[in-house]
Write a structure and sequence with these properties.
The complex is a heterodimer of chains A (520) and B (464).
Chain A: E1 2-9, H1 15-26, E2 31-38, H2 41-49, H3 55-59, E3 64-71, H4 74-90, H5 107-113, E4 119-122, H6 126-138, E5 142-145, H7 152-165, E6 169-170, E7 176-179, E8 182-185, E9 192-199, H8 202-214, E10 219-224, H9 237-248, E11 254-259, H10 264-274, E12 281-285, H11 290-295, E13 299-300, H12 304-315, H13 320-342, E14 351-356, H14 359-371, E15 376-378, E16 397-401, H15 405-408, H16 419-430, E17 434-442, H17 451-468, E18 474-480, H18 489-498, E19 502-504, H19 507-518
Parallel strand pairs in A: 4-5, 5-6, 9-10, 9-11, 11-12, 12-13, 14-16, 14-17, 15-16, 17-18, 18-19
Antiparallel strand pairs in A: 1-3, 2-3, 7-8
Chain B: E1 12-16, H1 19-27, E2 31-35, H2 56-69, E3 72-79, H3 80-83, E4 91-94, H4 106-118, H5 125-133, E5 138-141, E6 160-166, E7 172-176, H6 192-216, E8 219-220, H7 221-229, H8 240-257, H9 260-272, H10 278-290, E9 301-307, E10 310-315, E11 318-326, E12 331-334, E13 347-348, H11 352-355, H12 369-373, H13 377-387, E14 391-400, E15 406-412, H14 414-420, E16 425-431, E17 439-446, H15 449-463
Parallel strand pairs in B: 1-2, 4-5
Antiparallel strand pairs in B: 3-6, 3-8, 6-7, 9-10, 9-13, 10-11, 12-17, 14-15, 16-17
Classes of the chains: A alpha/beta (520), B alpha+beta (464).
Chain lengths: 520, 464
Amino acid sequence: MITRTNIKSGEYYDSVTLMEVAQGLLELEGVVDAAVVMGTPANKGILAGADLLTPEAQAAVADDLVIAVRTESDEVAEQALALAETLLEETGKVSEEGGMLSPPKTMAEALKRLDGANMVLISVAGRYAGGVAHEALTQGQHVFLFSDNVTVEDEIALKELGREKGLLVMGPDAGTAIINGVALGFANAVPAGPVGVVAASGTGLQSETSSLARMGVGITQAIGTGGRDLKTAVGGIMMLEGLKALQVDPATKVLLLVSKPPAPGVAAKVLAQLGASEKPAVVCFLGGDPKIISAAGGIPAETLEEAAYLAAALAAGQDAESSLAQLAADNAKLQVEAQKLRARLQPGQKYFRGLFSGGTFCYETQLILKELGFKVISNAPVDKKLTMADSNDSVGHVVVDLGEDEFTVGRLHPMIDPTLRNRRIIQEAEDPETAVIFLDVVLGYGVHPDPAGSAVEAIQAARALAKAAGREVLFVASVCGTPGDPQNSVEQEAKLRAAGVQVLPTNAAATRLAGYILDF
Amino acid sequence: MAIQELFGQPLKAVNIGLESFTESLHDQGTAAVQVDWRPPLEGYVELTQTKDGIDVDAANAEALERIRTGRPLLVGMGIAREVIPGMGARMILHAGPPVEWERMCGPTRGAIMGAAVYEGWAESYAEAAEMAAAGEFEFDPCHHHATVGPMAGIVSPSMPVFIIKNETFGNVTYTTQNEGLGKVLRYGGYGDDVLKHLKWMETDLYPALASALAVTGPIDLRSLIAQALHMGDEVHNRNRAATSLLFRQITPAIIETSEKEVAQAVLKFIDSNDHFFLNLSMAALKAMLAAAEGINGSTVVTVMARNGTDFGIRLASMPDRWFTAPAPMVDGLWLPGYSEEDANPDIGDSSIAETGGCGGFAMAAAPAIVRFVGGTASLALSVTQEMYELTVGEHKFFTIPALNFRGTPLGIDVRKVMASGITPFINTGVAHKNPGIGMVGAGLVRAPKKCFVDAFAALKEISE
């Protein structure tokens, strides 16, 4: 039998803690008796009674911590004394019981509290966002960077760091992503399935995932890269890294890439990467050259709608042609419908007025109307020459992106706060030349709880106003969302229809209907 | 690591910014923590290494270790002029960073006037003020002499002081005997009754304590503070338990060594003064913190002190430089008959408590105090929890029962103050702004941002 003591001079612990430590020592195999006490006379008496009072313990004073063990061997005695140190250290570790913790004020503290955290969402002011994102990456976290106004230099540095560490850097200015089935930012509730999406556009990502969901097709991941990713300076770092990850992801069977036309060098890099896997890849470079995509082995799509149809067909094991034929047939029906609607307009009502909350919908609409032969101006034009003189004043065919900076300084994005668009609906209805007021109604997590209901109030006021002036304004809208969204797309569409709005399942279809109405 | 390793794992998110994102994540059944974020202070950048290649984290780890392994013992007493290093014959030490007579606040001036008459340098308080203005006394911060003093912090050459030795590192600190509450010198009070009490402290209290200490031998202040934290003190604004513990330790020796009448008066005084231990906790923490001074590259704060005009901090890596800002007003509760309008800006060396992981930083240990400073018990917990975000680590010996015996937050890191925009919380008493009146209240105050912004700018210079 071995009796050993360790005296820790000047260390004070309360007696309950010490009893717990002693209990821990007794649980160690080979420990016969153990005491961990302050060296007061009373405690020394207890030690003596337990035959643990070594000469060292006898010499201890009230301020000394005495650790005494009796064990079967020297080895166990060493172990026990070491264990006592560990247990004493652990007494100070945080407990999260009781829910009395105040909210963490720093990322470091939040990461400490959320064991296994793997994603940091950042939506602080742009000038701070880069630093916060850098800290997150340094901590080994994937990043969803919603903030805009982050410099391109910071974006490059962040994405290079992300690439080096094998971490996602979604953004800056990433509106949407769906990772492991969880919607980040403004995203929709969509089912799991075989399509993996990488998009440089938040609205584009929402549109694709929602359209696929309507066709019963789910996704693996939907990675948002932020709008600048495919510019020459950034070089498509995140689209490439996202694409590579989906290429090796066994659950992903079909790839779907969405962006405005990238810089040529960047497009080449992204398309070259397609060759790294056998998985079919639908590529929608809105308004870009489809030939380079085909040449690289990708399947080009001209619109967001077409991209979703193609990806859905591939996911179902069907060929792409049949889905395009379906689209053409739907189109023919739209033309018939347009004829009827056109009859309700007065002479002099001839212009299209598109009021958008989604930037990529605004872009897609411009491309389709241009294709149909219209000259459309915008505050976010596809062609710089077609810039509006004044974003607040519509002249001719106009599409306005209400998510652009001139409308969002000091106020929330129109997907969250539709006040500005509702006002603009009235303004456009007052113009006797307005024929069609066109809306994108975007649903999902993070956005307004009832965007259709909010728009309907303005629509009813606008209709009354036009009626009093002896004319009718036609309303055309698309709803981007799913029945599983917090707003429920079925209910949202019903509200719009009840208010006399022509509701189409996609922005492209809605745009064509409006185009056909005005095509006289 | 590769991106695809994330796929298929449960997503667990930290959200910084729009709270609706956290709500959306919770609606989806996803684990998410919202950060109550605020922007970093102006001028913040990442700082990991000095020009000389010193790793800041390693330097701070060393500073933390030195501070928390220090073992301050009350070893004896002496007269200021005989024991305090560099104490001049006509020198008056004051709390906080350096300040000239012209810029001194009312309570500091009042206490200096009282001390000058106490020393016999002036006949009247008016004469004392004239002499002070004429530059006849030498003023110096306590901190320049390993000394700390609460409120005005006045130490003059004849005053008796406690001597505290950090047994681990050998450094020594000094502090006066606490005068009690009411109209007292440290709150700027002066007058015959104030001086009479000071004289009694010199002729009766001091010899009684000194001879008692000779009998008890060194008293372990670290152990005493550790116990007091488990008894509801945070040893800045509440010292009731610590004073009682000290009382238990020294009473037999006082009875043994002093005449009966003296012993009775001394014990009655200590028993009636809940803050008797305050000066000792301050000097103990000063002794622990001073051991970290001179560690190159460390961004740890080793001093926070106020003179009623300015608030100043000093760093482990730059122990001779003060970074100052105007002293803030205290958000407090007021004694009957007084209001915020009577209050002097923040004053005293007692914020050494917070610097050393006690006071506001240990408020979770002292829920009873929140009524005194105007708050709820949950505030006490949240203040301490918030301070963990500013510190390099935690105390080894000072622990908090309500936080499952977690060590108190220790080692304020200027970088963390800058990055988080959170400034240290201080529990404090409040003096009347005019000389000669005394205490008017107590409350909470935050250290001013500017001190940390300036200190960080200086740190950047040595790291570029």
